[in-house]
Write a structure and sequence with these properties.
Chain A: This is Tricarballylate dehydrogenase. The structure holds 2 protein chains of 2 kinds. Chain A is α/β, with parallel strands linked by helices. Helix content of chain A is about 30%, strand content about 20%. In chain A, strands 6-2-1-10-20-19 form a 6-stranded mixed beta sheet, covered by helices on one side. In chain A, strands 11, 13, 14, 15, 16 and 17 form a 6-stranded mixed beta sheet that branches. The two termini of chain A are about 20 Å apart. By secondary structure, chain B is an all-alpha fold. Chain B has one domain. Chain B has 13 helices and 2 strands. The longest helix of chain B is centred in the middle third of the chain and has 30 residues. The model of chain B has no long low-confidence stretch (mean pLDDT about 90). Classes of the chains: A alpha/beta, B mainly alpha. At the A-B interface, helix 4 of A face helix 1 and helix 4 of B. Bound molecules: flavin-adenine dinucleotide and iron/sulfur cluster (SF4) (2 copies). The site of one iron/sulfur cluster (SF4) has 14 residues of chain B, from helix 4 and helix 5.
Chain lengths: ~475, ~350
């Protein structure tokens, strides 16, 4: 690493790599500064499995068509309208072109995974998952001459009026300074900084698990916001889902998800139910359960099922806790045994005719006279052995970010910062203010990463 | 003898993580087979292990490899079980230990094979005979090689029956065997699921090097084998005796076969030095390498022997070449050579699984 780069890309995930590749293809000298060590490179992107892609007619692994209007409508549904329509449509439209671009830069797709057939039309799955994608991009980028520095955490960007004049990063215990012509920030959200989460959410956030990388601590985000770079998104919002309570604090990823809630009752540590477990199919409810669990004492929930439901959901990484009686199960899970039995018996008594039970459809098999009710898949829990899982809140990402325009450029005081762009999670709040649509994170990162890379290179090449 | 429970348990632990993840589904036939189960019996794990061809795609793409606490290394976990399953199924059991001492076994086999054949050739040197038969009579070669070929096959048959029982294979169907042959013939699984090949010699780079070298080795070996068989047929069927001219069937098959075998095994040995040994069964590395080199020696000594036709060197080259072949044959059930047979069995079992699932 002899000469100073034209462009510094901060971060080493999907958005950063897309930006670096585009910039290098435009002829710029690019350096990636990635905070993580090589085995953990790739941020949250290494945990992903697919991206959502508009298409007219079959495209790659995708079947049928998925139009802009349908895609946009799906987005509006989950965000409750809190969507920047122009940027969202820009991302949606550009996604169709991304799939062949990804393939030509080394990404390989596979047919929709077993158990996810419902996504075969809308989401293209990466072969080997997100780490496979990230590996391919690193190979492509390095072949284009992009320099990659691992364990290089950017600590400060110096803004003077409408320019970033220099930036500092630490590497091998030392601080270094660079003055690139252009800077692309693709350093994700701040969810791994649990102190920050706790400031935004309250102390309960200390008990949250972080589903992805421990390196997305929002250092660059905080630094830029402090210097008046324009922010977007609600700092108290984060995308959180209910996951297996035994998951590691960081990086548990996809395997910690639990799909059994619809076939269960969920109780808190007092062994009381607190929400309708059968409100809707799980993919539409797992995010709500992240918040529900967060609101319970100690931020923990307990899923109880019986043997007849064990095979109805995808296996999870940890085996369930098993017991022949409810009391024994309660003992193993640290719940009050009498209370658990009373709750289960009350629930069982409220169950009615279960002949219409259908595990993959809203079957209307509901409880009567119970609060809260269970409105689908309500079958008595009475066939030992009984099984239990603990549930905790797992944070996927945060919404607070840098506000960008259609060219992925950041602004400060209503003026663009002439050499600063942002892509991926760190600016996703510019597009969605709440809610989330499966596969849209990688779409945003790919589309805006590519835009940011091109813009940054154009600027660098012109100066 | 049972496969070591701790190796099975470790592979099962990892398989359960993969089953909750599924990101690698498209790489090879291990994952669809894995995802079809919810719980894994010892037989299931043994079957998965024998379906894996150690392409490492699933290691480099895994977000849970060390230093992550889940410590995924499926290629190694399956390689350990695979190696151990061959040992557990080896027959007669006493020979199982040869798997771990392949290097020593091969060296000993070579020295012994050469010495015995050389001594025999000297002691009962034919009075007549042309070409090789001037050094060793046809009858003697047949007397040595017929049992050396058939006994190991019989031993393997016993092992494979044990395998079939372990993986709970039902009645054997021709259509399943045919499906397995098709898959193996194209090395379908070595294309990595996306046609870019496998990861092996350069971390996460996908190449076809391993597939091509393996293909060369397999087809080279089969050509050499066909060459010998055609010679036997010419000898007994048509009364045509060696030496054969360069345009004869044995030569037309044998020379390209030998060249392919040398290229393939040379390439495989070279790749092996580049690949990360921690993604395979560590204890098996040396034995596998020794075996690849033995195959190389079979091909190379055969070619040299042909080139030396008419020279006095044939006197020691012939026993040397035959010694390598003898060692190869005798060690087949107790060396990496066995993998081909187990792999065919595993692919056949998998074809049956798919057929049952589709029904
Ligand atoms: C378990 C899980 C599964 C998911 N599955 C999907 C999915 O299937 N589809 C989908 O679309 N989305 C999915 N998401 C969301 C998706 O991960 C993100 O939307 C996407 O990865 C964001 O990409 P990014 O490049 O912006 O951020 P990241 O990939 O998180 O990259 C941020 C990078 O910045 C680096 N970094 C952070 N701070 C610094 C600093 N100060 N200096 C230098 N480098 C720094 C990090 O090390 C990291 O490399 C999933 C998320 C999780 C947690
Ligand atoms: S090897 Fe890793 S990425 Fe692949 S399926 Fe298993 S756990 Fe998932
Ligand atoms: S190493 Fe290759 S063959 Fe073996 S399980 Fe992994 S991807 Fe499949």
């Amino acid at each position: 690493m002899t000469t100073d780069p034209d462009i510094v890309v901060i971060g080493g995930g999907n958005a950063a790599l897309c930006a670096a590749i585009e910039a290098a293809e435009a002829g710029a000298r690019v350096r990636i500064l990635e905070a993580a060590p090589k085995p953990y490179r790739g941020g949250n992107s290494r945990h992903t499995r697919n991206f959502r892609c508009m298409h007219h007619g079959p495209l790659g692994p995708l079947v049928d068509s998925y139009t802009e209007e349908e895609y946009f409508a799906d987005l509006m549904k989950v965000t409750g309208g809190e969507t920047d329509e122009d940027l969202a449509r820009l991302a949606i439209r550009a996604s169709e072109d991304c799939l062949p671009w990804m393939e030509s830069h080394g990404v390989r797709f596979q047919p929709s995974l077993s158990g996810t057939l419902s996504l075969a039309r809308t989401n293209a799955f990466f072969l080997g998952g997100g780490k496979g994608l990230v590996n391919a991009y690193y190979r492509t980028a390095e072949a284009l001459g992009v320099e990659v520095l691992y364990e290089a955490e950017v600590t400060h960007l110096e803004r003077e009026d409408d320019r970033i004049t220099w930036l500092d990063y630490t590497h091998e215990g030392q601080s270094h300074r660079l003055s690139p012509k252009s800077v692309v920030v693709a350093a994700g959200g701040f969810q791994a900084d649990t102190d920050w989460l706790a400031r935004a959410w309250g102390p309960a956030a200390k008990n949250f698990l972080i589903r992805g990388t421990p390196y997305n601590r929002g250092v660059v985000l905080a630094d830029l916001l402090d210097q008046g770079v324009e922010q977007v998104g609600d700092p108290t919002q984060c995308h959180a889902v209910a996951i297996d309570g035994r998951a590691p604090k960081f990086d548990g990823g996809i395997v910690t998800r639990l799909d059994c809630v619809p076939f269960s009752i969920v109780v808190n540590k007092e062994a009381e139910r607190f929400y309708d477990e059968g409100e809707d199919v799980w993919p539409k409810r797992y995010a709500i359960w992240g918040r529900l669990v967060a609101a319970q004492p100690d931020q923990v929930g307990y899923v109880i099922i019986d043997s007849k439901s064990l095979k109805l959901f995808m296996p999870s990484v940890f085996p369930p806790i098993e017991a022949d009686t409810l009391e024994e199960l309660a003992g193993k899970m640290g719940l009050p045994p009498d209370k658990l039995r009373a709750t289960v018996e009350g629930f069982n008594a409220a169950c009615g005719d279960t002949s219409g039970f259908h595990p993959t459809e809203l079957d209307g098999v509901a409880t009567t006279g119970l609060t809260p009710p269970k409105t689908n898949w309500a079958r008595p829990i009475n066939q030992p052995p009984f099984y239990g899982y603990s549930l905790r809140t797992g944070v996927t990402f945060t919404y607070l970010g840098l506000k960008v325009d259609a060219r992925a450029q950041c602004t400060a005081g209503n003026r663009p910062v002439s050499n600063l762009w942002a892509a991926g999670e760190t600016m996703a709040g510019s597009i969605l203010g709440q809610g989330y649509l499966a596969g849209f994170g990688m779409t945003i990162g790919t589309v805006f990463g590519r835009i940011a890379g091109k813009e940054a290179a154009a600027h660098a090449n012109a100066t | 003898m049972q496969t070591q429970p701790d190796l099975i348990a470790e592979a099962r632990r990892q398989a359960e993580i993969c089953n909750a993840c599924r990101y690698c589904e498209g790489y090879c036939s291990v994952f669809p087979a894995l995802h079809a189960e919810r719980a894994f019996s010892d037989g299931d794990i043994t079957q998965l292990a024998n379906l894996c061809h150690n392409c490492r795609g699933c290691y480099y793409a895994c977000q849970y490899t060390a230093p992550h606490e889940f410590d995924l290394n499926l290629p190694r976990a399956l390689a350990e079980v695979r190696q151990d399953s061959w040992k557990a199924l080896a027959w007669p059991r006493g020979f199982a230990a040869l798997f771990d001492r392949a290097g020593v076994a091969i060296a000993a086999g070579l020295v012994l094979g050469f010495a015995v054949l050389f001594a025999l050739a000297q002691a009962v040197r034919p009075t007549g005979g042309e070409g090789f038969y001037a050094y060793m009579s046809h009858g003697l070669m047949v007397a040595i090689f017929t049992p050396a070929f058939l006994l190991p096959l019989a031993a393997l048959a016993v092992s494979l029956r044990g395998y079939w029982r372990t993986v709970e294979g039902g009645a054997l169907r021709l259509s399943d065997i045919a499906a397995a042959c098709r898959s193996a013939g194209r090395m379908k699984n070595l294309d990595g699921g996306h046609g870019d090949g496998c990861n092996f010699e350069d971390e996460d780079r996908f190449t076809h090097a391993r597939r091509h070298f393996h293909q060369a080795t397999l087809y080279g070996f089969l050509l050499c084998f066909a060459s010998t068989s055609s010679g036997t047929i010419l000898h007994y069927g048509f009364g045509l005796e060696a030496p054969y001219a360069w345009y004869s069937l044995p030569k037309l098959l044998g020379v390209p076969g030998g060249i392919l075998l040398c290229l393939g095994t040379g390439g495989l040995a070279w790749l092996k030095t580049k690949a990360d040994p921690d993604l395979g069964a560590r204890a098996a590395w040396g034995g596998e390498m020794a075996f690849v080199l033995l195959l190389f020696a079979v091909g190379a000594s055969g070619l040299i022997l042909y080139a030396a036709t008419g020279l006095a060197a044939v006197g020691w080259l012939l026993p040397l070449h035959l010694g390598t072949v003898l060692t190869l044959f005798l060690l087949t059930p107790y060396s990496k050579m066995a993998h081909g047979f187990y792999r065919m069995a595993a692919l056949t079992r998998d074809a049956a699984r798919k057929r049952e699932a589709a029904a």
